[in-house]
């Protein structure tokens, strides 16, 4: 479908009196919109180029697609998205100028940002050099920090939502998934919404999202910026089964450790110091990532400075003369890197190929909770020699070959062994306690889901020739003596006699209409549910097996 066709399709349903014959229309008596050549479109919205007739300023005008314009939920989401973006006032976030709602459609008037999206630049020119990537990260992190200060989280940071102006300024757009900090991720139509390659684990599972969620999505973007691909791949337009590919990516976000960037693209000579910094931002648990997005940016740039890598004043743009020096894909001689199957495998591979002097950088916090970045070790003051050959690719069905584990992991293994032993000791102690209680008190008092006696519950006589008395007490007159397993119904609450024994008021359902009191130890409740019946069956079996032992040991 051509741009003109798209525009014509999306204008159906608008008030014809507002549309001119040259393919333009005026909204709110102020904004002239070019309907013929849309600037872009997404899942629910489409963006047109426009002009403010009062100020003569060029603007971008966003509205809902035709199929969503009459949907109240879609219009409410559009309104909330616009208001969230309007709350911001930052040089790296596209500004909102106006929101105009009509019966036919809502219109959001925003800043028109010239330039290209980061996606277009990556597709055309390949990954950024580390110094330019650091400048890009600084700007995006600054925008997100401003957003977090407004108690909002973006949740949709991806190359398509970052526009690079000719002067190198980065603009963050598309607040369709933005929501307040600290709340569970809001699904759309019951599923996680967003681009699979850049979703944080908590967005996928519907857990609480906060600033650490944006740290993760931004780390996915930076991983692609410096290597040419997201940490767990993406869904290509020509994928035969996109749903299966997307599910694979989502599972990888939840349980697969990303490969170190310097090993994924050894042909790009990425500083190994960046590996820890990027992978820590990709931690599966939010509390293990940088809680402050600007700390991620400072660490990223700080890893480059001791190596003498200078960032340019603006990120690599489509007008840069050196834009074709880095390819989007590895050279033909580069063997593909198979992602590790577990965190242990990732650490072992990393130990084998990463230089021994590469620093381990971890996010840390002051006692007051303010995030700070760790200082890099002085051992990286000069560039470190890289291995002579890249890691050898492994077929999917092959067993991985690891380098011998170094001594740094032995304390951890000792701790694991100690913890497992403690678990076994506690489990054994609980098993002994359970056996003791069953032997001394009986299985019926220990096992769960045993039926209990209460008002209106059916009960059975437990012992043969149990007496039914006129009142609660051993001195009351006997009405009848009933055989075992006679069924009665409890008619009220239990009462105690002078000796402290508990008596239940009961009646029989037979023609004699017997009513009286039976001592509690002479009754047992009839199991009502499947669980109660199974629990009684098991407890009876256990007690039956233990009765000979109890008879042999009277004091047990």
Automatic annotation (TrEMBL):
Query: Secretion signal: which residues?
Result: none
Pfam families reported for this sequence: Pkinase (PF00069), SH3_3 (PF08239)
- Kindly state which keywords UniProt assigns to this record, in alphabetical order: ATP-binding, Kinase, Membrane, Nucleotide-binding, Transferase, Transmembrane, Transmembrane helix
Q: Does the keyword Aminoacyl-tRNA synthetase apply?
A: no
Query: Which CDD domains does this one have?
Result: STKc_PknB_like
Which GO molecular function entries does the Swiss-Prot or TrEMBL record give?
ATP binding; protein serine/threonine kinase activity
Domain Protein kinase residues, every copy: 33-301
Region of interest called Disordered, as start-end residue ranges on this chain: 1-20, 314-339
**Compositionally biased intervals (Polar residues):** 1-19, 314-332
Q: What superkingdom heads the lineage?
A: Bacteria
Q: Which residues cross the membrane?
A: 418-439
The molecule here is called Protein kinase domain-containing protein
Instruction: Tell me the classification of the organism that encodes this protein.
Output: Bacteria, Pseudomonadati, Thermomicrobiota, Thermomicrobia, Thermomicrobiales
């Amino acid at each position: 479908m051509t741009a003109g066709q798209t525009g014509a399709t999306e204008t159906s349903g608008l008030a014809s009196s507002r549309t001119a014959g040259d393919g333009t229309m005026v909204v709110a008596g102020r904004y002239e919109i070019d309907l013929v050549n849309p600037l872009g479109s997404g899942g629910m919205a489409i963006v047109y180029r426009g002009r403010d007739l009062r100020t003569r300023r060029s603007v971008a005008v966003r509205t809902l697609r035709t199929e969503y314009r009459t949907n109240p939920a879609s219009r409410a989401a559009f309104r909330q998205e616009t208001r969230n973006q309007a709350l911001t006032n930052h040089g790296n976030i596209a500004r909102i100028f106006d929101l105009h709602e009509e019966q036919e459609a809502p219109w959001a008037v925003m800043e028109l940002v010239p330039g290209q999206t980061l996606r277009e630049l990556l597709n055309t020119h390949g990954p950024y050099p580390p110094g330019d990537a650091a400048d890009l990260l600084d700007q995006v992190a600054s925008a997100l920090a401003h957003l977090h200060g407004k108690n909002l989280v973006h949740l949709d940071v991806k190359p398509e939502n970052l526009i690079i102006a000719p002067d190198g300024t980065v603009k963050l757009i598309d607040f369709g998934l933005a929501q307040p900090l600290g709340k569970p991720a809001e699904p759309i139509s019951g599923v996680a919404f967003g681009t699979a390659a850049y979703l944080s684990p908590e967005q996928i599972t519907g857990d609480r999202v906060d600033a650490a969620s944006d740290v993760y999505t931004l780390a996915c973007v930076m991983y692609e910026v410096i290597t040419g691909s997201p940490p767990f791949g993406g869904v290509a337009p020509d994928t035969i089964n996109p749903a299966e590919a997307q599910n694979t990516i989502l599972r990888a976000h939840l349980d697969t450790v990303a490969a170190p960037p310097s090993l994924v693209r050894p042909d790009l000579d990425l500083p190994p110091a960046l590996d820890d910094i990027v992978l820590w931002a990709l931690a599966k648990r939010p509390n293990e990532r940088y809680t402050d997005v600007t700390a991620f940016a400072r660490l990223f740039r700080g890893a480059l400075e001791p190596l003498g890598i200078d960032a340019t004043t603006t990120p690599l743009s489509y007008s840069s003369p050196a834009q074709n020096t880095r390819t989007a894909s590895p050279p033909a001689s580069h063997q593909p890197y198979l992602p590790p199957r577990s965190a242990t495998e990732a650490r072992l591979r990393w130990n084998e190929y990463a230089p021994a002097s590469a620093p381990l950088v971890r996010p840390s916090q002051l006692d007051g909770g303010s995030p700070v970045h760790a200082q890099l070790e002085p051992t990286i003051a000069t560039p470190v020699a890289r291995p002579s050959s890249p890691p050898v690719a492994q077929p999917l069905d092959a067993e991985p070959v690891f380098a011998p584990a170094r001594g740094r992991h032995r304390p951890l293994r000792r701790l694991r062994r100690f913890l497992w032993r403690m678990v076994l000791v506690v489990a054994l102690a609980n098993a002994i306690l359970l056996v003791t209680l069953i032997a001394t008190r009986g299985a019926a008092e220990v096992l769960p889901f045993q039926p209990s006696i209460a008002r209106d519950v059916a009960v059975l006589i437990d012992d043969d020739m149990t007496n039914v008395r006129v009142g609660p007490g051993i001195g009351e007159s006997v009405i009848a003596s009933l055989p075992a397993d006679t069924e009665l119904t409890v008619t009220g609450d239990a009462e105690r006699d002078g000796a402290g024994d508990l008596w239940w008021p009961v009646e029989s359902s037979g023609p004699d209409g017997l009513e009286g009191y039976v001592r509690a130890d002479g009754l047992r409740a009839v199991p009502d549910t499947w669980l109660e019946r199974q629990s009684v069956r098991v407890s009876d079996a256990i007690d039956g097996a233990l009765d000979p032992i109890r008879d042999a040991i009277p004091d047990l």
